[in-house]
Structure formats: structure tokens, C-alpha cells
Amino acid sequence: MFQRLIQATLILLLSLLTGCAGSSLFVPYPSRIATVHSQLIKGDDQAALKTLSSGLSGADSLLYAQESGRVAALLGDTDSSLKFYRLAMTDYNQYDWKAIVSLTDLSAQLGAATLSDNLVPYRGQAFERVMLHQQQSFNYLWQGDIEGAMVEVRRADQAQELAQQAYRSALKSQRALSNAAIDAELTQLDRQAGNAPDSFINPYVLFSNAVLYEANGQANDALIDIRKALQLLPENRLLQQEMVRLSCQVRIDCAALSQRFGDSPQPEPDSGRLVVLYETGTLPPRQGISVPFSWDGAYQQIALPTYRDNRPEPAPLSLTLGEQTLQTQPLANLDQMAARSLREQYPFILVRQGIRLATKHNTNQWADRKGGELGAFTMQVFNALTEQADRRSWLSLPRQAQAWAGYLTEGEYQFNLDGQANTLTLARGRTTLVWIARQDGVRQIRTILI
């Protein structure tokens, strides 16, 4: 009997190795995406997109669509980026917010999650979806479609609110597992998350949305988003100045805010508004840890995702335009938001881990009864091989987002970046937006007068 058990286990293992070749069960997702990063560093741009295309039809199609959209944007291919991001949005729209923030798409997860989280189709994360709308708004902007850009701006604002509400509703679940190793890991994730209070409200997205709101003649909406961003970053000088400037523009609490934060520079009659958005670095990949258990004398383990990233913070960007040198300020540490997002998911991850641990324990007991020690040992090995941490996440997002905003006399300006000369135009009463992204050896600069 135990020989047939072993044979069945081996057959199942082989089927997983072949049938799940597109999943991250045995090859962690960061290892898969490392090839793309390497190709970008070498300048093999089209090879990077081709590598990603292999995942667009699999269970993780949403993740690969997000990666493809970002890589295409970094390469200046706006049309392709638009297309890939639309694919990702189509996937997102199939699931409600509670399923995204609490990982509770049980119809798809019930069978797969009892074996490995890596077999559950990737449903994205709330902060990724918010960033998706923001990045798509840029794509529409580069095409001169301000109406399309504003649709995505409103979707990004709505996504932040809906995600936060869904998380609060879903957090009625209780943590199913607890031991010293798990509690230590939760503490570690809190450290990695730093000052990010949650992963749902993104100061960088709020700031860029405010820029587009104001350029589109919606100063009140811009003020609302700047106020939200300032609540998260109360010491940020850029946000303080924007709060005062917009408040005085719409005549709401101008005197009180000026006294609190100081006066904000007001535009001269012949000046134009300049906004620089700077995205730098890449998100760190999730790591995996194993937490061992002994249950009725049988070895068990669970694998959990975590973050281990001790890189120094990115430097600010300095640009010289005419006689003025601009220096950007950090608005969002997306690596911290990614860690906070994972920390928010842990109650739901642990519930699933508890269910899976119980299932595998029952399987081990059945194998011991039917096949003796060898059968039980075989099943334990199989369970250990399939218990891998889910390390999937959108890795081509920037690690940090920075910004600068102010007024300069209208006219043409040149600035040098990495030895390349660039030109931008400022016009009185209008906004010039400069988007600069640096990562994986790729540099992309887009400039538009709105």
C-alpha cells in the first residue's frame, strides 16, 4: 500500500513541476523577474518585454501585465504601456476590494491554498492598484489626453478610499497562528514599514493627482488631496507650501495656514508653474522564512513572506535651470508601503496557513496509517517541498518617489541629467510637468506643458 502511496505522490509532484511551470511554486517570482532586470541593465529592452510576455496568459497574468506596463513606460513606449495597464485593470475589475486586501477569493483559492499560496492566482495588492491608476494617468497625459488622465486621477483617489474601507471591514478575521518566530517577524515588518501608517493612502499619488487637478482648473480638488498628503507627512516642507498656496488661492484658511507654515511663494505675472516628479530605484523582493512546528511528533513547517532591506535611502535629485538649482524632496517610500501592505495582509495569510497546516497534518496521519513510517516520511518531504513563501509583488515599481514644485519666469530652459541635455518650456499661467524615472540602468524623461 505504501508503495502505491509513494508512486501517487511522485506522480503528483511531477505534474506540479510540469503543469505549474508558469507559477512561482518551485521557482520564486523574484528569480523570474531578475532576468528582466538583467536585460534592462544590458540594454536588451525588447528582450525584457518578451520575457514578461510569457506570463501574460498564466495564473499571474495581472502581475505580468503590471510589470510589462511599467517596463514599457520606462522604455518610452506609451502605447504598449497603456495596453498592458488596461489588461491589469481588467483583471482587477473581476474582484471586489475585500478580496484584494484580505486575499479571500475562496472560489479560486480553496484547492490551491491547501497546497501552496503560490498556486493561488495573483490578485494584486491595494497599493499596487492605486499606483496602477496613477501611472496610467501619466500615459494618457503623454498622449495629450487630459480627459483620460483625469479619469485615472479620480480612479486613483477612489481606489485609496475603497481599499482602506475594505481593509477595515475585512479585519474582523483573527490571527490563527502565533508563536515567537511569527511575532518576531511581525515586529521586523513593522520596522521595515517605517513611517508608512498604511499602504492605502499614498502621498505621492495624492500630490501628482493634485497637480493634474489644479492644471485642469480644479483647485478645490487639488487642495483636498494636498491636505490628505500633509496629514501623512506633516513635516514635509513641499506639502506645507502647497497647502498654503492652494488655500490662499481658493480663500480657505489662508491666514491661519500662513501663520502656521509660513508664507508660500506666489507666482509673478510672467511666470509658469514647474513640477518635477522623480521616481528612483526598484522595490526590494520579498524574502521567505520557514517556521517549524512539531505536531503529534511529526515535523511540520510553514513558509512566510517578509522583507529584509537595509539599503541607504536614495539621494535627492538636483537640477540646474538657469540660475536656480532645484532639489526634490521625498514624498513616498514605496518600499516601506510594500512592507506595510504585507504586514496588513498577515492576519489573512496566517488564517490560510492554519488551514493548510491542519490539512497537511491530516495527510501525514493518513500516510502513516496507510504506508507506515516510509509513507509518512514521503508525505512530509512532499509537504516541505511544496511549502514555499509567496514572494510575488510588482517589482518594477520605484523604490522612492520625490518631487519639486515652484514658479519660474516663462521661457525655455535646459538642464543636464546624466550627461544628456534636456529642454523644457514654461508658459505664464500654465503648468509644466517633468517626469523622471531612473532604475535598472534605464532613464526616462517626459516633459509636457499642460
Specify Rg, calculated over alpha carbons: 25 Å
Unreliable segments of 5+ consecutive residues: 5-11, 13-21, 106-110
- CATH topology, by name, is Serine Threonine Protein Phosphatase 5, Tetratricopeptide repeat
Order of helices and strands: HHHHHHHHHHHHHHEEEEEEHEEEEE
- Give the CA-based shape: globular
Oligomer state equals single chain
Quickly name the level 1 CATH class: Mainly Alpha
Walk me through this protein's architecture.
The protein has one domain (29-449): Serine Threonine Protein Phosphatase 5, Tetratricopeptide repeat, CATH 1.25.40.10. Helix content is 54%, strand content 18%. It has 15 helices and eleven strands. The protein has helices at 2-19, 29-42, 45-53, 61-74, 78-92, 97-102, 106-113, 126-142, 146-170, 180-193, 203-215, 219-232, 237-250, 254-261, 334-386, and strands spanning 271-280, 287-295, 298-306, 318-321, 324-327, 329-333, 400-409, 411-417, 420-426, 431-439, 442-449. Helix 2 packs antiparallel against helix 3, helix 5 (78-92) packs antiparallel against helix 8 and helix 13 (237-250) runs antiparallel to helix 14.
